[in-house]
Write a structure and sequence with these properties.
Keywords: DNA-binding. The protein is mostly helical. The chain has helices spanning about 1-5, 30-50, 50-60, 60-70, 70-80, 85-90, 100-115, 120-130, 135-155, 160-180, 190-205. The chain is built from eleven helices and no strands.
Length: about 210
């Protein structure tokens, strides 16, 4: 009787503890896990995003993620590769030829990256590459081989590998300064202002003299 008296009014008894993640009754899919992984890798990088925290956010047992993706490295690859598809990035960029290519490329990339609340693949790769070899490989493959290697290859400029690496260094530095370290006023500058300032350098790397 005493226990019943001391029980707070309207306080549910023996209610199950709710954990973070998806609402009860909703089925977690591979897509849900990949979305949770992208958010975690964006916010904390590869090293800071734990396998268990991703499972909790997705509302699934870690064993299910291991069943689907093997390990954290496999989950990382699966979550990143669709986001760094060069065909999607370059769609329409090459159509107008070499003139203004640096401007079109940078505007396309910044427009894709400047979306608050959405995973930024370049931020994930650059932030993770410092401590994770798989991230370094993916970053290098996407930036210098798939994206920029194809770009300079199609405009038939001499020294394509050097040109690709020079543009890559500019883009990686921009991602670090604007999105990760957030150096002001660059971090909050309008996209068009950044394009106006940096695109001429990219254009020279792509088609101009490089020594």
């Amino acid at each position: 009787m005493g226990d019943a008296v001391n029980q707070p009014v309207n306080q549910p008894v023996n209610q199950p503890v709710r954990r973070p993640g998806r609402p009860a009754g909703e089925r977690t899919t591979r897509a849900d896990v990949l979305a949770a992984a992208r958010r975690a890798f964006t916010e904390r990088g590869y090293g800071g995003a734990s396998f268990r925290s991703i499972a909790v956010e997705a509302g699934v047992d870690p064993g299910m993620i291991r069943h689907w993706f093997g390990d954290k490295a496999g989950l990382f690859r699966a979550s990143m590769e669709p986001m760094v598809d060069p065909d999607l990035v370059l769609a329409g960029v090459l159509d107008a030829g070499a003139d203004g290519l640096g401007e079109r490329l940078l505007r396309r990339l910044l427009t894709a990256w400047d979306r608050p609340g959405e995973p930024n693949p370049m931020v994930i790769l650059v932030r993770s590459a410092v401590s994770h070899e798989e991230s370094t490989v993916l970053l290098r493959r996407f930036v210098t081989d798939q994206l920029l290697g194809r770009l300079v290859g199609e405009i038939a400029a001499p020294d394509p590998e050097l040109r690709a690496s020079l543009v890559g260094s500019q883009l990686i530095g921009l991602v670090m300064a604007r999105f990760i370290v957030r150096v002001e006023p660059l971090a909050s500058a309008p996209v068009e202002q950044v394009v106006t300032a940096i695109a001429p350098t990219l254009q020279r790397y792509l088609t101009g003299p490089i020594g």
